[in-house]
Design a protein that fits this description.
The chain has 16 helices and 26 strands. By secondary structure, it is an alpha+beta fold. It has 2 domains: 2-10 and 274-458, 3-Layer(aba) Sandwich (Rossmann fold), CATH 3.40.50; 18-263, Aminohydrolase, N-terminal nucleophile (Ntn) domain (Glutamine Phosphoribosylpyrophosphate, subunit 1, domain 1). The strands form 6 sheets. The protein has a 7-stranded antiparallel sheet.
Length: 481
């Protein structure tokens, strides 16, 4: 077997976290269920994880840097009470350093008690809001957007009749993307920005309510998916039951298309579309737009597999497993000094030589960001004896950056801005290279209940880009823990 190391952190699009919460109306093992729910969302972030449990209005928290299985054990989970509510979070950070203070859930105490906040997204007017709060005397402990949102809620609570009113006032000011779970001393709250950039959904287990980034986490704990939280909606669960409110701001809805392409788990349903079927559809359209004669179709694990099966079904070319993924490669710190990334998530793929030797291979991947991964994949396939390697990408070319929560390089650093398709083909060593069209990518999510954002492909955004890019003055002083 030939092997290749794929550094997904540097050469893949990464998301900005997963959120989870339960309001316990039954005699549930709240801590275990929240732990398992976060495990089901682990693909959305591997840098840190945390659980906050509310018991008699008081928050109790266990959180740390690392992945769910490494952070939570019987001893520290045993410190958490049975609880009435829980808030959970897994984090991916796009920064060059790990800010331990930004580990969520963030717990903040204010005049009405405490708030525990878990957020997924990127508030585009974060810098302006933070500067205004700092001028008013606010002191921040982290670079987290959740902390700024918490300050805003606590500030609005002073002149509001309820926590719900304070949250709605805050939603009226925030721009960009956010899907959040928040607990007050007596209420569990979920909110989704008016554009609906990031997914958020509702479920139930017995008589208890669940709020989650994805439906897969609800089903993984034995719950039942109810529906998605609507763009601009705030849901509140308390001892009187379930309540729904809407922000007054009506916006063009813009769910991130990359949820279907790469981010979400295949067994999730997001805004009415099954992720697995969307990826298979992407493969089918990819073949219809870019056919090629070949002997086998293979996918790059994991997000390329479903698209490869769709390509195979549409083309009649045999589907084959060319790569074995070592599931036991853990997180490895790698790189110091000027290295842009300090902590890396690596996957080791082994090529099964007898599958590809002498064959014309179509290899399906979800994206090309820098091109390094694609070049490695082509090389290792040819080293293993592949006669031809045809690369097909189940998304369009990335030519614009993202401002709403996906960790993409600046536009000028994206390889498709520096090379046309033919030049990029030569660079990665493929016999042919084709991308799914922008028109084609919209067809993979037919039946989606809200609009879709393709800004990173088309340059057209349905929300305002940030006027100011926040830069932490102390970034170069924060050391790796």
């Amino acid at each position: 077997m030939k092997s290749v190391v794929i550094d997904k952190r540097r050469d893949k699009v990464n998301d900005e976290c997963g959120v989870f919460g339960i309001y316990n109306n039954d005699d549930l093992d709240l801590v275990s269920l929240t732990h398992d729910g976060l495990y089901g969302l682990q693909h959305r972030g591997q840098e840190s994880a945390g659980i906050t449990v509310i018991e008699d209005g008081e928050p109790y928290t266990v959180k740390d840097l690392g992945i769910v299985s490494n952070i939570f054990n019987e001893k520290n989970l045993g410190k958490l009470p049975k609880g009435k509510m829980s808030v959970g979070h897994v984090r991916y950070t796009s920064h060059q350093y790990l800010d331990r203070a930004a580990t969520q859930p963030l717990v903040m105490r204010y005049i009405e008690g405490s708030l525990a906040l878990a957020n997924n997204g990127a508030v585009t007017n974060f810098a302006e809001i933070r500067a205004a709060l700092e001028k008013g005397g606010a002191i921040f402990q982290s670079n987290s957007h959740a902390e700024v949102i918490g300050y805003m809620i606590s500030t609005h609570r002073i002149d509001s009749d309820s926590i719900e009113e304070a949250v709605l006032k805050t939603m009226g000011i925030l721009k960009g993307s956010y899907s959040m779970v928040i607990s007050s001393p007596t209420k569990l709250i979920g909110l989704r920005d008016p554009h609906g950039f990031k997914p958020l959904c509702l479920g139930k287990i017995n008589n208890s309510y669940i709020i989650s980034s994805e439906s897969c986490a609800i089903e993984s704990i034995g719950g039942k998916f109810i529906r998605d939280v609507y763009p601009g909606e705030m849901v509140v669960i308390d001892n009187e039951g379930f309540h729904s409110y809407f922000s007054e701001k009506k916006k063009t809805t813009s769910l991130c298309l990359f949820e279907y392409i790469y981010v979400a788990r295949p067994d999730s349903i997001i805004d009415g579309v099954n992720v697995n079927l969307a990826r298979r559809k992407a493969g089918e359209i990819l073949f219809n737009e870019n056919p090629v004669e070949a002997d086998i179709v293979c996918g790059v694990p994991d997000s390329g597999l479903d698209a490869a099966q769709g390509y195979s079904a549409a083309s009649g070319i045999k589907y084959a497993t060319a790569f074995i993924k070592n599931k036991y490669i853990g997180r490895t710190p790698d790189g110091v000094g000027n290295d842009k990334t300090q902590r890396l998530l690596k996957n080791r793929l082994n090529v099964i030589k007898n599958i590809v030797d002498g064959k014309r291979v179509v290899i399906i991947d979800d994206s090309i960001i820098h091109g390094n991964t694609s070049a490695h994949i082509v090389k290792v396939l040819k080293d293993a004896g592949a006669k031809e390697v045809h690369v097909r990408i189940s998304s369009p070319e990335f030519v614009h950056s993202c401002y709403f929560g996906m960790d993409l390089p600046k536009s000028e650093d994206l390889i498709s801005n520096r090379y046309d398709v033919e030049a990029l083909r030569k660079r990665i060593g493929a016999d042919s290279l084709k991308f799914l069209s922008v028109e084609g990518i919209h067809k993979i999510a037919e039946g989606c209940k809200i609009g879709l954002c393709d800004g990173c492909f088309s340059g057209v955004y349905h929300a305002d880009k940030p006027k100011i890019i926040y830069e932490d003055k102390f970034a170069n002083k924060i050391k790796k823990y």
